[in-house]
Specification:
mainly beta, disordered N terminus, 23 strands, 5-stranded antiparallel β-sheet
Length: 350
């Protein structure tokens, strides 16, 4: 078993003149915060008690350091930081969904996405539809960011066995929306990302669903691969300080140095046409590993780790945008938080 040490948490100094929304490059003096807990597909929210909670894919009993919880964790919870200091934790403090994926599904939970909407926290998660192996999205609700979340059943399960995974909820104009990988909008090995608005209880209003991106819109999703699925996944929609909506998404093989993050500009939270990849984003990712085996990204990320993907953009207590994403060390994935800043060349992470 790999032995894990405590995470080193870097200080985050926030300038007094920070404007709510995406920060400029000069607004922060900060180092990204890395965790030693093996957590894939991370998603971070500001909890009701002012702490930050990061969720991720199921881990087995005995995996990673623990600080208050034991055994298999269906949705591991890392608790860290407060206020403008997001930080990171090196130990799992709870299981946000100890009852598992619910009666509609079986097995593990992947890529949980959580948002606070009103006085409730809504979780959208991936699981295997019972008896089929098809990957679908479920919905769960809790009064607390730390859970326990209770499954309310399946939320999206396309016909013909196509997959719906990697849901990421967000609020726009006082309404809850969900972005997710939606293989139903593509054919064969191709994949896509959809965005849909929901009702007050988080159920999709399917007439509002829009295509945000398809794997056919880029080429770097298959560079260096030898067949298989053309991957675009792990979407995260965010509105920058200039009022423009953007989509962060992942592409290529998750278990390689090539897994990377794209950024696309969108015409609103429910885009009327597909989002436009930035910085020659058809041919190369926006963020990625810059060493041998990478895909020549527009920009690197703190630590220049291999396979940085699953990037979730969230809002800190001071109104600025932060990110959490994972990287791959050849056998496991580990989460990192950082500041989403902006300079003359575009977005960057510090």
């Amino acid at each position: 078993m790999i032995r894990f040490i405590s995470a080193v948490v870097a200080a985050c100094a926030v300038a007094a003149t920070v404007v709510a929304g995406t920060a400029t490059a000069d607004d922060f003096s900060v180092a990204a915060n890395e965790s030693t807990f093996p957590l894939a597909d991370p998603d971070t929210v500001l909890a009701e008690d002012g702490r930050y909670v990061t969720y991720g894919t199921t881990v087995g009993a005995g995996v990673g350091d623990r600080c208050g919880v034991t055994g298999k964790l269906f949705v591991p919870v890392l608790v860290h930081g407060s206020g403008s200091t997001v930080g990171m934790s090196g130990c799992a403090a709870a299981d946000a969904m100890p009852g598992g994926p619910g009666s509609w599904a079986e097995g593990n939970i992947w890529a949980p996405g959580v948002v606070r909407f009103g006085d409730r926290f809504f979780m959208y998660y991936t699981a295997s539809k019972r008896g089929t192996g098809q990957k679908c999205i479920g919905r769960a609700v809790s009064g607390s960011a730390r859970g326990p979340f209770t499954s309310a059943g399946g939320w999206a399960c396309p016909p013909d066995g196509r997959w719906a995974i990697d849901a990421n909820p967000f609020v726009a104009g006082g309404q809850l929306h969900v972005a997710y990988r939606d293989d139903a909008i593509a054919a064969g090995a191709e994949t896509g990302i959809s965005v849909v608005a929901t009702d007050a209880n988080g159920w999709a209003v399917w007439s509002t669903r829009r295509d945000a991106l398809k794997s056919t819109d880029i080429t770097w999703d298959t560079r260096g691969t030898s067949g298989g699925t053309h991957v675009v996944e792990n979407p995260s929609m965010f509105r920058a300080a200039d009022g423009v909506w953007y989509l962060a998404y992942s592409g290529n093989n998750w278990d390689s140095a090539r897994y990377s993050t794209g950024i696309a500009r969108c015409a609103g939270p429910l885009p009327g046409s597909r989002c436009t990849p930035l910085q020659n984003g058809v041919e190369r990712p926006y963020f990625g590993f810059t060493g041998d085996g990478g895909l020549d990204p527009y920009r690197g990320l703190p630590g220049n780790h291999r396979g940085p993907g699953g990037m979730d953009v969230f809002t800190a207590a001071d109104g600025t945008h932060r990110v959490v994403y994972h990287w791959w060390n050849g056998s496991s994935r580990f989460p990192i938080t950082g500041v989403l800043a902006r300079d003359a060349g575009g977005f960057l992470v510090r």
